[in-house]
Write a structure and sequence with these properties.
By secondary structure, this protein is mainly α. It has 21 helices and no strands.
């Protein structure tokens, strides 16, 4: 039988490979469709997508997670999950379609009616997804996601590009969504056999786990959309646009590095839910690894925000540079506590709902206070809001650590021991790199911008590794993520030497 660590390593590889493939297809799709369609097409579909996404978020049942977490799901559990998904999708599809009429009236855009009907149909199709896909997560088998996510993305890309090339219509984007959902459902049944039966016999078991996730996701949908809505009430629209773009850049940078590991935590922790000592050890190990990976990315992005924004987005996005810096730091702080997978694995989803409500209660006053009092404090409304957002991230992270302590009896100081060395190293590295860039003349040519960015990233990487290693040695080489990194490096070097040795 394969060990959990080997399964996790394989899972991380397949999740990472899937994300790379899907992101490359997404990038190619965006570039091609942008050349075939006009901004108005994207704007119309973006309005409909946002409306549908809000409704989906506040009604999500999280039944797949319930099946993963369940100690021993029976066949009727899968039938119940399938039935509940289909019923929800049908009701939600009608609701999304019906929303087209008030949306068309509010935005004075009658074409939204047919687009929302299309999205409603897509939602109904997606409800027929095979619930037995949860078995792959329970077994920590993730290579199937290459076919599921890749096939879905490829189908949407091909259909959208074909329709856009022939008709030059926004329908390319709508039908692409329909094709993606249909392909995802078909592939799900091709990957693992399942013959659905209408059942509701175990709905209480599944809802007992997922109901608090549903409430939490509803609050999260409000929580994470609150910042741009609040900014729009106080600041000009271009500033809000800069904030949205900066938010995407910062979250993408941090999430892309951590997601292959983070996606494994829920099923991995679920396997250990009845063994608290092993679960506690797994959490400590994971927290140290994610801290070691996240701080150089987030702090590094904050340090090289200026050359990155100017090179990737262009001069017109210069105002987004300081926003990227603040949001990158906030994103790193938020990712230091792995509460969601731990709470789901131990059936503490009510704690997650409480966390989401508390996060909203803390964030809103701090962001609003920053907007209102930032000018009187001499930092301006925007920077006041960014400071409030960052402070709320720090405060919520500390409170989340207390919840972790309550769930698995892991004290605050034990958790901080896994974080402080990467945090100090990342901060010192960012200060050094940002200081060096501030002394260098700004590059206006493309080659110069690329060279400056590559040089800054390389220097930051060397600095971070050196500072972490020094702090680890000063601390007496404690067991943790640094130890595993050193052991892994030795194994890799050993293999390279053995391959290079003469026969």
């Amino acid at each position: 039988m394969k060990s959990t660590s080997n399964l996790l390593m394989r899972g991380a590889f397949w999740i990472g490979a899937t994300r790379v493939a899907v992101n490359l297809m997404g990038l190619a799709s965006t570039i091609i469709l942008a050349r075939l369609l006009v901004p108005e097409d994207f704007g119309l579909v973006a309005i409909a997508t946002a409306l549908a996404a809000v409704i989906q978020a506040v009604t999500e049942l999280s039944l797949s997670q319930a099946l993963v977490q369940h100690a021993d799901p029976e066949e009727d559990h899968f039938h119940t999950a399938w039935t509940m998904n289909v019923l929800r999708a049908a009701i939600l599809g009608v609701l999304i379609a019906a929303l087209g009429w008030p949306a068309a009236y509010f935005y004075a855009e009658p074409r939204l009616i047919e687009i929302m009907i299309g999205f409603g149909i897509a939602n109904v199709i997606g409800g027929f997804i095979n619930p037995r896909l949860a078995l792959f997560e329970r077994r920590l088998e993730f290579k199937q996601w290459v076919f599921l996510s890749g096939g879905e993305k490829l189908a949407g890309f091909v259909v959208s590009a074909g329709i856009a090339f022939v008709f030059r219509s926004y329908w390319a984007l709508v039908v692409g969504v329909l094709a993606s959902q249909l392909t995802r459902v078909i592939v799900s049944y091709a990957l693992i056999s399942y013959r659905p039966r209408p059942r509701l016999s175990h709905y209480r078991d599944l809802l007992n786990f997922s109901i608090w996730l549903t409430f939490g996701q509803a609050v999260q949908a409000i929580n994470w959309r609150a910042n741009p809505l609040l900014l729009a009430a106080f600041l000009p629209t271009p500033v809000v646009g800069s904030y949205n773009v900066a938010s995407r850049v910062s979250s993408l940078a941090v999430n892309e590095v951590l997601e292959p590991v983070n996606a494994l935590l829920f099923p991995a922790f679920s396997r250990l839910q009845s063994e608290r000592e092993r679960l506690r050890a797994a959490y400590i190990r994971t927290q140290g690894l994610l801290a070691l990976l996240s701080f150089p990315v987030g702090c590094g992005l904050a340090a090289v925000a200026a050359p990155t924004v100017l090179l990737v987005l262009g001069e017109q996005w210069r105002s987004a540079i300081p926003i990227v810096q603040f949001l990158a730091i906030a994103a790193v702080i938020q990712r230091q506590v792995q509460l969601s997978p731990l709470a789901m694995a131990t059936a503490n989803t009510k704690q997650m709902f409480g966390r989401d409500v508390r996060a909203l209660i803390i964030r809103l006053p701090l962001v609003l206070g920053g907007l209102a009092f930032g000018p009187s404090l001499g930092v301006g409304s925007l920077f006041g809001a960014l400071i409030g957002h960052t402070l709320s991230s720090l405060l919520n992270a500390l409170l989340n650590m207390q919840l972790v302590a309550k769930i698995i009896d892991l004290g605050l100081m034990q958790q901080m021991k896994q974080i402080w060395r990467p945090a100090v190293a990342g901060t010192l590295m960012a200060l050094c790199v940002a200081g060096a860039l501030a002394r260098l003349p700004e590059q206006s040519e493309l080659v110069g911008q690329i060279a400056m960015l590559i040089g800054a990233v390389a220097a930051g990487g060397v600095l971070y590794v050196g500072i972490v290693a020094l702090l680890w040695l000063i601390a007496g080489r404690p067991a943790g993520a640094e130890t595993e990194a050193v052991d892994t490096a030795r194994k890799v070097l050993g293999r390279l030497r053995s391959r290079g040795a003469p026969a």
